[in-house]
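Example record

The entry below shows one chain as it appears in the dataset: sequence first, then structure tokens.
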Amino acid sequence: MAVPVRHNRSLHGPPASYDAELERIEIELLLEGIFRHYGFDFRSYAYASIRRRLWKRIDAEGLRSVSELQGLVLHDPSGMERLLLDLSVSVTAMFRDPGFYRVFREQVVPLLRTYPFIRVWHAGCSTGEEVYSTAILLEEEGLLERTRIYATDINDAVLKQARAGIFPLNRMQEYTENYIRAGGKRSFSEYYTAKYDGALFSPSLTRNTVFSQHNLVTDRSFSEFNVIFCRNVLIYFDRELQHRVHSLFYESLVMFGVLALGSKESLRFSQYEDCYEKLDRREKLYRKVK
């Protein structure tokens, strides 16, 4: 009777005997292959983050090496779809960081009132929780009717979830608490209908929203925006790619437009640092002034 081989490995990491230099070569080859075959460019993502996510997928697929994963994803599109979920998924929630939304109401909404028409871009929108949060806020401020929201992500699977507007019912208590702390003006339950294990949010919230696939790494600007949200996305990019994305955002913002970054992100040391004024240092809200 054959005895199964047990690999000495940490959670979502290679066996202890795995050669680190060889692993890096394998990862570079895998990412190059994905770019050439599918057009998804993860080559400039932060190495530690991409490495951890690749090993998570290797474990889930029951494979033993990065090279085996490469063989799978290059020959099986469904395997690539599963890997894409691991590579592009981000932690998100409705009204995440409630203080951010409270400051947005106080500092940014008055600026938006001066525009006859408002364009908002949620870059890297994932499953859409922040898109719906923004729509609710703008609805309560009387601005949603004259706002077009563009919600984009590299991953079409998460975009489908965002379009559906169905979120886990067991998270509604958390989302309600966030909404109240964010300065919500109504009863949060007015915005959704509970059905089975899901909460279906009102389609009217996304009546002016366009969900579309967009790759921050390779795609160009597609409009001019008054507000760009890109919160907790840049932390997964290396410095060179962060610079490239900052250029994209700068080119995409109208003069005096607002850029919203995540709590661990900043414009410090970017080539555009002097082109923005800080609306709120803590909540990472910046206004383009040059």
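Notes for this example: The beta strands are 118-123, 147-153, 166-168, 192-195, 198-201, 209-213, 225-230, 253-261, 276-280, 285-288. The domain at 98-288 is CATH 3.40.50.150 (Rossmann fold).
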